[in-house]
Design brief:
Largest sheet: 4 strands, antiparallel
Order of helices and strands: HEHEEE
Strand content: 35-45%
Radius of gyration: 15 Å
Number of domains: 1
Length: 82
């Protein structure tokens, strides 16, 4: 019973986090949106929901720390959009 309750509380199967160099990437990553992930393998490539973004700025530098999640292991799209 407790295992089922925990599974129902968190239905997301895939979680990820990382950092992004905004100046190199070319645009700002926004929370509560979808982002395409490529190069992480068949099980992890595809669209992910951006659940959290933290902005880190210094002189001449703009980076973001982010957290992603998705509710299924295999993507429903054959190729992640650009």
């Amino acid at each position: 019973m407790m295992g089922l309750a925990e599974a129902a509380r968190s239905s997301d199967a895939v979680f990820g986090s990382g950092t992004l160099d905004v100046l190199r990437y070319g645009c700002v990553l926004k929370a509560r949106g979808l982002v395409g992930v490529r190069g992480a393998g068949t099980a992890f490539d595809g669209l992910h929901y951006v659940s959290k973004v933290t902005h880190n700025t210094k002189r001449g530098e703009y980076k973001q720390a982010f957290e992603l999640k998705r509710n299924g292991l295999i993507s429903t799209l054959p190729v992640a959009p650009v």
